[in-house]
Design goal:
By secondary structure, the chain is α/β, with parallel strands linked by helices. The chain has a single domain, classed as 3-Layer(aba) Sandwich (Oxidized Rhodanese, domain 1). It is 33% helix and 14% strand. The chain contains six helices and seven strands, in the order αβαβαβαβαβαββ. A five-stranded parallel sheet has the order 1-5-4-2-3. Strands 6-7 form a two-stranded antiparallel ribbon. The radius of gyration is 19 Å and the shape is globular. The chain starts with 17 loop residues before the first helix and ends in a 29-residue tail after the last strand.
Length: 177
């Protein structure tokens, strides 16, 4: 085993102290959540453990109308980023915590939406991975045609069918990180 003081990897030429790293990563968790964590919270509503009003946050899809029509996270509220400033007060009660998502990691729409909600005084988190990773992890998608669910992408999530014992018949496994 290599002594930490003798690490020579160029990756660690400039590295934060442990205290700086704690502040940084704790800070990121204050601003971000992921699709698996949102799925777990929404499951409380699906299971009857909580009412949507008691969930503790509103999930906002910030994509445009065409993207919304193609499919969305079940239970999400549609409010495109460009309309947040003018319509948020009529859509989300003041001070209500908000989780926002846009298309995916290659898009900063959710970041801009989070900034708008924060500017309006809402506690806000960005759902990293966005709708792309919601679909890739095999979570349900809702549209005017009803609910669908893709098979989980094995690069992002493990299907229960891939488990050695065949797994439970209840779909994808959310991240247990």
């Amino acid at each position: 085993m290599t002594d930490a003081a003798t690490v020579t990897s160029s990756l660690f030429e400039h590295v934060a102290s442990a205290n700086e790293a704690v502040r940084h990563f704790r800070g990121r968790l204050g601003f971000e959540t992921d699709v698996s964590d949102v799925w777990a919270e929404l499951q409380r509503v699906e299971s009857g453990e909580a009412d949507r009003d008691d969930l503790g946050f509103v999930l906002i899809d910030t994509r445009n109308d065409a993207s919304w029509a193609q499919g969305r996270v079940p239970g999400a509220t549609h409010l495109p980023t460009r309309r947040i400033r003018d319509e948020a007060a009529a859509t989300v009660a003041p001070g209500t915590p908000v989780v926002v998502y846009c298309w995916g990691p290659g898009c900063n729409g959710a970041t801009r939406a989070a900034l708008e909600f924060a500017s309006l005084g809402h506690p806000v988190k960005e759902m990293i991975g966005g709708f792309e990773y919601w679909v890739r992890e095999g979570f349900p998608v809702e549209s005017a045609s009803g609910r669908t669910q893709a098979v989980a992408d094995p690069l992002t999530n493990v299907s229960t069918a891939a488990l050695p014992d065949g797994g439970a018949p209840n779909g994808p496994i959310s991240c247990a990180c």
